[in-house]
Write a structure and sequence with these properties.
The complex is a heterodimer.
Chain A (H helix, E strand, L loop, with lengths): L3 E5 L3 H13 L3 E5 L2 H10 L4 E5 L1 E2 L2 E2 H9 L6 E5 L4 H9 L4 E4 L4 H16 L5 E4 L2 E4 L4 E4 L2 E3 L3 H12 L5 E2 H9 L7 H15 L9 E4 L3 E4 L6
Parallel strand pairs in A: 1-2, 1-3, 3-6, 6-7
Antiparallel strand pairs in A: 4-5, 8-9, 9-10, 10-11, 12-14, 13-14
Helix pairs in contact in A: 2-3, 3-4, 6-7, 6-8
Chain B lengths: L2 H24 L11 H13 L1 H19 L11 H50 L7 H12 L5 E4 L8 E7 L2 E8 L7 H67 L7 H32 L8 E4 H11 L6 E5 L3 E4 L1 H18 L6 E7 L3 E7 L29 H11 L3 E6 L5 E8 L10
Helix pairs in contact in B: 1-2, 1-3, 2-3, 2-4, 3-4, 4-5, 4-6, 6-7, 7-10, 8-9, 9-10
The chains are: A alpha/beta, B alpha+beta.
């Protein structure tokens, strides 16, 4: 049984091309041209992942994402355009997992799609392995190649949040909220400082990070260097 | 000028004569010496009307007349009794002091009246200038009233640097800042006090008004700039969206076809190729629409006029449309003098627009009517119609009111070409009953008898 992908875009041509392409890649495809149609399609046949345009005739991809998040964790990839950066961040804050910028390459979209699908199938238990890193959440213990790395409480929480959402793009706002609490959501400079401290401790070469990657203007994500 | 001498003189003589007659009439009922006080009544009105110097003259004349006619020895200027001397001098001084007081009161009254006039003019100017947009439009009456207040025949006010050289130029200044200049005729000699009091107040008022209208103008310009900026941003977004969408369709289809790990059926492969063809076509049309629009806005769409039968142009347009079989044509066959290519573009855009908004399978009706001066093509659809408020907006570039697809350029281009050919395009609609888009063109007058 192939995985079901819901594609939402108001441009019929894009919908058709994406649908055909995804079927060729072995997915089952549902399509919707409006926010309403997307929500009812997702309810009728819960998708494994959603690919969604940010701007829809009857609403925004952000609103649809927020609505979907009330009952499903199915990953959402938003299709954004240059000039829609704010909407893109809003969608990610609302719970979207990743984005690609139009016009995107098919290979890039497929790679992102497979990455988010892999993430949802791999359940994150109390001990998370990412490449050579091992994070023991209950013990608050981190090691690389079996060697202990000492982290401050905030550095540990930052790494834990990234690891529990491994591969997923986390916005500045989300990370600040998870690690420092809701009143620190605008203090992006805290985050940059702690990320650089964290990199200094966990990255083999902190000047060329391979675990904690920066998505300029959007946020950070933790990846397994061997997978990407 | 002579009146300034003879009228007061006559008045003064009359006053002295009247007083003398009155004293003569009363000598039988009152002591003669006490009647000297009557002359005070002769001095008073003279002082009020003609000032203190005439009053002094009247006082002296009165003293002499009293002495001559009534004090012994009568009919001489000599006096018998020294008590009489005393009375005469007392009456004269009284007359003079009273006259001085009266004249002063009169001066004050005139002065107060003048101030009152100035104040009411300034108040009037202030009130009027509050409501106006351009001070220059109000200058005419301000100049007339200022001349009245200054007591000169005419006055002229100019803003900015000094230009005209006629007359006496008095700068209007507020806090050493020059507001403008007021020109008065030479030798008009306005009252110096009035001038010193009134002109600074006038200058201050005008300065406020000038500043206010300048600020308003600047605010308006800033607002216009801001709005045109907003429009440009909106246009840019619309264009970039419209260019990017077909581009995304094309790159996705090509990416899919080139990716060797993907498996496609023949049907899917054909569908991807169709996507590329349709989107490339859309891109091409969009680019030519944008070029047309910029050409129209630059005024570069010179029509090549020729005489055509309008129904032929419409029929040919319909035949070239992909969904031409959904369009009915009826009506008259007027002759029009137009650029066939441009007018067919107008017709195609109007009819395609109607088709796009009609329910699938329904028909669009095209009907031609002609009056003596105009031929009108009406394109009637069975779509949702256009709300009253949008009837004009639909012709704005990039406007698409809930339109299913398209860049929102078709109607703007249609209107542009119609106007370039001396015609008009407009929309009529009742919401829920479909829309009618009409094209009117001037008709060619056909001679009653065609030459054989």
């Amino acid at each position: 049984m192939s995985q079901r992908i819901l594609v939402v875009d108001d441009e019929p041509q894009i919908l058709r091309a994406l649908g055909t392409m995804l079927r060729g890649a072995g997915f089952t495809v549902d399509t919707a041209a409006t926010a309403d149609a997307a929500l009812s399609a997702a309810a009728a046949h819960p998708p494994a992942a959603v690919i969604m345009d940010l701007v829809l005739p009857d609403g925004s991809g952000t609103d649809v994402t927020r609505e979907l998040r009330t009952w499903t964790d199915a990953p959402v990839i938003v299709l954004s355009a240059v000039g829609e950066e704010r909407e893109k961040i809003a969608a990610l804050d609302a719970g979207a997992d990743d984005y690609v910028t139009k016009p995107f390459s098919v290979d890039e979209l497929l790679a992102r799609l497979r990455a988010v699908l892999r993430r949802t199938t791999a359940d994150s238990g109390p001990i998370i392995d990412v490449g050579e890193l091992r994070i023991d959440v209950p013990q608050r213990f981190v090691s690389r190649c079996g060697e202990r790395i000492k982290l401050t409480p905030h550095e540990f929480d930052l790494l834990r949040v990234l690891a529990q959402n491994r591969g997923k793009l986390l916005t500045h706002r989300m990370l600040l909220r998870e690690v420092w609490g809701p009143s620190y959501q605008a203090e992006a400079h805290y985050l940059h400082v702690y990320v650089s401290h964290l990199r200094a401790k966990i990255e083999p070469d902190p000047s060329r990070p391979r675990y904690v990657l920066t998505e300029t203007g959007a946020g950070y994500r933790l990846v397994d260097p061997d997978e990407s | 000028m002579r009146d300034r001498f003879w009228v007061p003189l006559a008045g003064s003589a009359a006053a002295v004569t009247l007083a003398t007659l009155l004293v003569w009439a009363l000598t039988s009922v009152a002591p003669t010496l006490s009647l000297g006080v009557i002359y005070v009544f002769a001095v008073l009105p003279i002082a009020v009307y003609w000032g203190v110097w005439w009053a002094l003259a009247v006082a002296i004349a009165s003293m002499l007349a009293f002495n001559f006619f009534f004090l012994a020895p009568v009919h001489t200027f000599a006096l018998k009794d020294s008590a009489n001397w005393f009375a005469l001098i007392a009456y004269s001084v009284t007359a003079f002091v009273v006259s001085e007081l009266a004249a002063d009161a009169q001066r004050r009254a005139v002065d107060a009246e003048q101030r009152e006039r100035e104040a009411s003019l300034l108040a009037e100017i202030a009130g009027q200038l509050l409501g106006v947009e351009r001070v220059d439009d109000e200058l005419g009456w301000i100049e007339r009233r200022a001349a009245e207040v200054l007591g000169v025949p005419e006055a002229k006010i100019e803003f900015g640097p000094r230009r005209s050289s006629s007359g006496e130029a008095i700068p209007l200044e507020v806090d050493r800042r020059s507001v403008g200049t007021i020109y008065l005729p030479l030798r008009a000699d306005p009252n110096l006090q009035v001038r010193q009091r009134f002109l600074p107040a006038l200058a201050a008022l005008l300065a406020v008004a000038v500043d206010r209208s300048r600020l308003e103008r600047e605010a308006l310009e800033a607002e216009t700039l801001r709005r045109s900026d907003l429009v440009k941003t909106a246009l840019l977004r619309a264009v970039s969206h419209d260019l990017r969408s077909p581009l995304t369709g094309i790159t996705t289809a090509i990416g899919a076809l080139r990716n060797e790990t993907l498996v496609f059926s023949d049907g899917d492969r054909r569908e991807l190729l169709d996507t590329i063809a349709v989107d490339a076509d859309r891109l091409g049309r969009l680019v030519s629409d944008l070029l047309d629009l910029s050409r129209l806005e630059a005024g570069g769409a010179e029509p090549a006029l020729e005489v055509w039968s309008l129904d032929d142009l419409v029929r040919e347009t319909i035949e070239h449309l992909a969904e031409g079989d959904r369009v009915d044509l009826g009506g008259e066959s007027p002759l029009v003098n137009v650029d066939a290519v441009q007018i067919q573009r107008v017709l195609a855009n109007l009819i395609e627009n109607a088709l796009k908004f009609s329910p699938p399978g329904s028909h669009v009706h095209v009907h031609i009517t002609a009056t003596r001066s105009e031929a009108i093509v009406r394109v009637v659809d069975q779509g949702p119609g256009v709300p009253d408020t949008e009837l004009e907006r639909v012709f704005e570039p990039f406007y698409r009111g809930g339109r299913p697809s398209g860049a929102g350029l078709g109607l703007a281009i249609a209107r542009g070409f119609a106007t370039a050919n001396g015609g008009r395009v407009w929309a009529e609609s009742r919401p829920g009953q479909g829309a009618t888009f009409a094209l009117a063109l001037p008709v060619v007058q056909v001679p009653a008898e065609l030459p054989a």
